[in-house]
Amino acid sequence: MPGLFFSNWWEALSALQQSLWLIAVAGTLLLLILIVMSLIDPDTEAEATARFARVLNPRTVLTFITFFGWAGLLFAYAGVSLSLTIIMGCLAGLIAAAMAKGVTLMLFRLAPRPALSNPQRLVQSTGRVLYRVPSHRNGFGTVHLNVKGMPYEIEAMTAGLELREGASIRVVDVIEEGRVLVVEPLEDKGYPHEEHGLGR
Fold first, then answer.
1. Distance CA 21, CA 140 (A)
2. Per-residue pLDDT tens for 161-181?
């Protein structure tokens, strides 16, 4: 009679408890699926690992939802008021999301980076800016490339305007014996790489 037991248990819950159970279980399952996907294919989390990537990426959102649900359940069963339950659930979700972001960044920084055996094959690769790339070749930034088997983090410069964190980029050249990439905005159609002597 498991079904009958579950039905009786579910009907005995308040509307708030039912809602929190649904949020907690759904968030947990989706977060586990995301974690498994990231272990199988780390490139699926390229944006989530960026230092200043958008806050609303899948990992942080699902972490927030999951911990909001479970923390809210604890307070709901403790008989706390609705408003305080929601406030404490949101606080727990925000703390958990921030901690998950920090752990992701730490693992990202500690991950080994294989040497580039053939850097020219990176030309025309696309990716995302991790650390700001200064304008007009006035310094170096860092980018993540969407290329299997490549390092996640590579130094880069640009011949055009500054590229901010999270911006989509394309590699137009590889210099400094393969240690530095020259990149341009992915959506840019008239990028002045040719006038700077940088071939595609």
1. 48
2. 999 988 999 999 888 666 788
What count of Cα atoms within 13 Å lies in the side-chain half-sphere of residue 38?
16
Q: Any idea which fold 119-196 has?
A: OB fold (Dihydrolipoamide Acetyltransferase, E2P) (2.40.50)
Distance CA 140, CA 181 (A): 9
Q: b/e for 15-47, b at 16 or more Cβ within 10 A? A: eebeebbebbeebbeebeebeeebeeeeeebbb
Each domain of the chain, given as residue ranges in start order, spans: 13-110, 119-196
Write out the DSSP string of 119-173: GGGGTT-EEEEEE-B-GGGSS-EEEEE--TTS-S-EEEEESSS-B-TT-EEEEEE
pLDDT digits (tens, 9 = 90+) for 105-121: 676 556 555 445 567 77
Please tell me whether the overall predicted TM-score, pTM, comes out greater than 0.70 for this model: no
End-to-end CA distance of the chain: 68
In this structure, which amino acid lies at residue 135? S
